[in-house]
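Re: the 520-residue chain
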Amino acid sequence: MTQETTPFPLTFRGYEREPVDAALQTLREQVARGEHQLNEARSRIAKLDQRILHAEGEIAQSRLAAAEAQARIAEIDQPSYAGLGARVEVLLRSAEEQSATLISTAVKQAEAARNEAEAESTKLLADAHQRSDQMLSEARRQSSQIVESAKQESQTRLEAAELAATEAREAAARDAERVRLEADATAVADRSSLEAEIASKRAQANAEVTSILEEAKGEAADLLTAAHAEAAELRDTSQREAADLVTSARTEAQGIVDAARQEADQLRIQAAGAAKSDRDNARTAAEEQLASARAHADSLRAEAQSALDQANENAAIIRGQAQAELAVAQAEAADARTAAQSELDKARSDAADLLATARERLEDARKQAEEMHSAARRQRSEAELAVAKERDETLAAIRDEAEAARQRVGDLVQKSSAQAAEAEARAAAALEQYEKVQADVAHLRSSALAEAEQRSEGILDAARADAERIRTEAAERAAEELTSIRAEVDSLRDERDAISGHLKDLRTLLKSTIAPEVAE
C-alpha cells in the first residue's frame, strides 16, 4: 500500500506525541508573540494619545495667553487696537491651524498604527487556527488510513487462515479417500492396530483443525482488540485536541474583548479628565483675566507684549515638540512593524525547518517499515517452505505406514468408511463453526470501527462549531467595542469643539466688557 507524506513520524498507534506537542507549542508561542506585539502597539498608541492630549492642553494655554495679551493690548492702546488685534488674530489663527493639522496627522497615524497592529494580530490568529485545522484534518486522514490498513491486514490474515484450513481439510479428505481405496483393494487382518492408527489420524486431523481455528480466533481477537484500542486512542486524542482548540479560542476571544474594553475605558477616562481640566482651566483663566484686567490697566503694555512674544515662542516650541514626537512615533511604529515582520519570518522559517525535519523522519520511518516488511516476507517464505517440507515428510511417512497397513485392513473396510464419513462430518462442522466465528469477528470489527469513526466525527464537528461560534462572537464584540470607542471619540471631539467655541465667546465677552471700561 502506498505511503503518503505526513508532517509527523508514524508509530503503530498513530503520531508520536513529542513532534505534535512541539508543533502545537510553536503555534502557541507564535500566537503569544503576536498578542505581545499587539499589546506593545496598543501601549504606544496610548502614549501617542497622551502626548496629543498634552499638546492640545499646551496649545489651549497658549491660546489663552494670546487672548489675554490681546485683551490687555486693546485696553491699554486703544488707537492701535485694530492693527495689533489683526496681527494677534493672524498669529493665533496660524497657530491654531498648525496645531490642528499636527493633531489630526498624529491621530490619523496613531489610528493607522493601531489598525495595522490589530490586522497583524488577526492574521497571526487566523494562521494559527488554519494550521490547527490542517493538523486535525491530517490526523483524521491518517487515522482513516490506519483503520483501513488494519482492516486490510485483518482481512488478509483471515483469508490466509481460511486458506490454510481449507487446504488442511482437503488434504485430510484426500488422505482418507486414499486410505479407503487402498483398504478396498487390499484387506488384511489386524483390526486393533488399524483402529488405533485411524483413531490417531482422526485425532491428529481434529487437533490440526482445532489449532487452526484457535489461531484464527486468536488473530481475530488481537486485531479486534488493537482496532478498539486504536479507535479509543484516536477518540481521546480528538477530544483533547478539540478541547484545547475550544479553550484556546475562548481565551483568545476573551483576551481581545478585555483588551478592547480596557483600552476604551482608558481612553474614556483620559478624555473625560482632559475635558474637565480644560473647562476648569478656561473658567479659572477667564475669571483671573477679568480681575487682572480691571485692577492693573495702567501697567500691562510691556507685560502684554512680553506675553505675546512668549506665546509665539511657546507655539513654536509646541510645534517643534509635536513634530519631534510625531517623528519618534513614526520611527517607533516602523520599528514595531520591522520587529513584527522579523518575528513572523522567523516563525515561518522555524515552521519550515520543523516540516522538513518531520518529513525526513517520516522518510526514515518509511524505509524502516519497508525493511521490516521485506524481512517479514522473507521469514514468511522460509516458514512456508519449512511447513511444506514437513508436510511432505509427514505425507511420505503416512504413505509408508499405509503401505505397511495395506495387508491389515481386510474386514474393516465398512467400519473405516463409516469413520472416514464421520471425520468428514466433523471437519464440515468445524468449518461451519469457523465461518460463524469469522462472521462474528467481521461484524464486531465493522461495528467498532463505525462507532469510533462516528464518535470522532461528532466530536470534531462539535469542536469546529464551538470554535466558529466563539470566533464570530469575538468578532462581533470587537466590532461593537470599536464602534463604541469611535462614538466616544467623536463625542469628545464635539465636546472639545464646544469648549473652543465657549472660550471664543468668553474672549468676545471680555473684549466687549473691557473696551467700554477703557474708553471711560
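The mean pLDDT is 62.
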